[in-house]
Amino acid sequence: MKKLNRRDFIKIAGTTAAVSTLGIPSIGSAASKKVVIVGGGTGGATCAKYIRMADDSVEVTLIEPNKHYYTCYLSNEVLGGARKIDSIKFGYDGLKKHGVKVVHDMVTGIDAGARTVTTKGGDSFKYDRCVVAPGISFRDNIAGYDDAAMQKMPHAWKAGDQTMLLRKQLEAMADGGTVVIAAPPNPFRCPPGPYERACQIANYLKNNKPKSKVMIVDAKEAFSKQKLFMQAFDRYYKDNLEWVSSFDTDGGITDVTGGVVKTGEGTTLKADVFNIIPAQQAGAIALTAGLADDSGWCPVVHKTFESTIHKGIHVIGDAAIQKPLPKSGYAANSEAKVTAAAIVELVNGREPGTPSWVNTCYSIVAPDDGISVAMVYNFVDGKVAKVAGSGGLTSLESTPDDRAREVQYAYSWFDNIVHDAFGA
Predict the structure, then answer these.
(1) Average pLDDT rounded to a whole number, residues 62-69
(2) Measured in whole angstroms, how far is the alpha carbon of residue 100 from the centre of its chain?
């Protein structure tokens, strides 16, 4: 196999998941270098794997409380009944084969001065570089939406138990029932997600409970891929799916105290199933560690995704302020590769290369109808920037065959990215 130099690795780190499963030989040195990664989702897992592939002299420890990770991407198909929950469930054996030390514990503190990560189990881990990939936590924009309310009106915005809870509620609902989805304000994880979810649930109801209805009560007046989604609503779900903007409700759903669901202007909503998706911010450990600013998200230097608040700590994935990159699984995967390449350079006393990123987001709106948005990004004047003409949206005039291929592309993309992140 041809040996890859550092420049080649940086190029690979910025490419798609479909090609990033190539084996990369070690470019290691004998010096001891420690990287601790907090969070084992798509971003954290990818970063851990790519650091080890680039330089096996770097000691990488990934700390994640859960022994399995459930992908949020394609979890809407679980809600719609097109796939089983185990199909989005992944473990960490693949990372272990790359020499990553995986610790299942909850991180409770990060001391940027001492360069130490501590856990609930009482362990302490020293690092030269730390990567924080904590995903999201929820803001309290909806009064009364506490832990108890989540068990009655699930968000299902962190895949796993919540996904199954919402699915069971949909299965138990009688024909003729109503499902209300509360879509959150910007910014949030997976901007097209609530609208794909509405399509998946509407399709399930159309085929199994045809007298039932889905209503999206939005905290926004516009949303991602809106024209394409509205086309799908009209094409497939004209009789059982309705979207209501924040303009009509004065901010969407704002109060669920005592199980009474109210919109901003005071209207009480009745439904059989409520899917409440609240406003979001960086994951809890990022807030605890002081990595977030007043927005609730974490500012970073885009070249390396190093925190602008605490040096030596990199924040990737949903928690970072990475606009115009979206908060998506594919963006997290791309950010992780760029950050892995930068960290390998930094711990070896070298200057990181010039980064680039990529994102593609698929939404499956019907069994044989998929839509997508894609974009390539480069580094301009110290910031992430879109590469003009590099991507775009599915055409509103695309043919049924084109749309059916998009579904297959989505499934292929899923297989590639989960192998890229979690596979050996």
Answers:
(1) 98
(2) 22
